[in-house]
Design the sequence.
């Protein structure tokens, strides 16, 4: 398959005057330079937002950010979303800390399967941000895939076959396989302490498999390998092979980019049009990240 020069993904500079964009891979992702997130202006933010829709995931290096800076940037996109797993950090209910200590050895870390953030909610997050404070000397990368390109690469007949399908998204399997109960009775998934209603996220929601971006009007595949448990109206045995195909298709390496973090890297991704996964390959080193989400809309 030839993806570059990009007939499906246009990574040209796009006339930005205030920011510099450096594509990370042919299918998605870009480093944004010449912007300080702590002092970003309205005009710069408008170009950053445009770049986000274009590149799906964008990142800024060497940002010296407080929690308040991250909160302020997040709110430029809209109201905070309610995190499905935790109540945030003390004094900052909308900021989740993803901390893996050097001494922690676990089979799974938060987000280590290919997923879209909280699709089991009625209104899944539109945008997610992640700030890296302490980064291991190697490992701990995050990998994303562009689900708009994945949709474009389906055959016309497949697009027609799937156009009205609705996916059942649920956290049931994640909770069943990964929840650990601590000595104090609290429960944990990876490094995340659970403090939200597990029944609600386990029941989940049904959303269109082919969704349309509310701002760009572009279609993408809304499916992942972690929370997509069924297809409305299909028996489990009927849905399974289709979900397996779609889950594999959206994560083809041609559609991907992979980010090597450094301390002070700040990342924003459009959660409606990509899937992502974290790597658990840095035992013996601390990784300390801060995450926020922007409230989304019911996918259509
Ligand atoms: C996430 O899935 O939001 C976490 C990604 C990461 O820790 O790299």
Sequence:
């Amino acid at each position: 398959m030839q993806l570059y020069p990009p007939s499906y993904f246009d990574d040209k500079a796009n006339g930005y005057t205030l920011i510099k964009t450096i594509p990370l891979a042919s299918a998605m992702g870009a480093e944004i330079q010449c912007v300080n997130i702590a002092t970003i202006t309205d005009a710069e933010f408008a170009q950053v937002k445009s770049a986000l829709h274009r590149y799906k995931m964008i990142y800024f290096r060497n940002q010296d950010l407080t929690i308040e800076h991250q909160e302020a940037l997040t709110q430029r996109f809209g109201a905070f979303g309610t995190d499905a797993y935790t109540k945030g950090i003390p004094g900052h209910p909308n900021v989740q800390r993803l901390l893996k200590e050097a001494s922690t050895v676990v089979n799974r870390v938060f987000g280590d399967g290919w997923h879209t953030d909280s699709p089991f909610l009625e209104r899944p997050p539109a945008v997610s941000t992640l700030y890296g404070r302490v980064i291991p000397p190697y490992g701990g990368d995050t990998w994303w895939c562009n689900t708009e390109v994945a949709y474009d690469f389906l055959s016309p007949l497949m697009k027609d076959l799937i156009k009205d399908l609705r996916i059942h998204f649920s956290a049931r399997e994640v909770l069943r396989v990964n929840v650990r109960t601590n000595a104090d009775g609290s429960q944990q998934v990876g490094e995340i302490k659970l403090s939200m209603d597990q029944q609600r996220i386990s029941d989940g929601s049904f959303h269109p498999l082919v969704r349309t971006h509310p701002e760009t009007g572009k279609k993408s595949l809304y499916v992942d390998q972690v929370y997509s448990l069924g297809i409305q109206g299909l028996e489990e045995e009927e849905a399974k092979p289709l979900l397996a195909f779609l889950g594999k298709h959206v994560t083809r390496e041609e559609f991907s980019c992979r980010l090597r973090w450094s301390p002070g890297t700040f990342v924003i991704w459009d959660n409606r049009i990509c899937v992502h996964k974290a790597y658990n390959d840095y035992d013996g080193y601390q990784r300390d990240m801060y995450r926020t989400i922007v409230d989304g809309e019911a996918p259509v």
In short: The pocket of succinic acid is lined by residues 98, 110-111, 130, 142, 276, 278, 289, 291 (CB under 6 Å). The domain at 6-294 is CATH 3.60.130.10 (Double-stranded beta-helix).
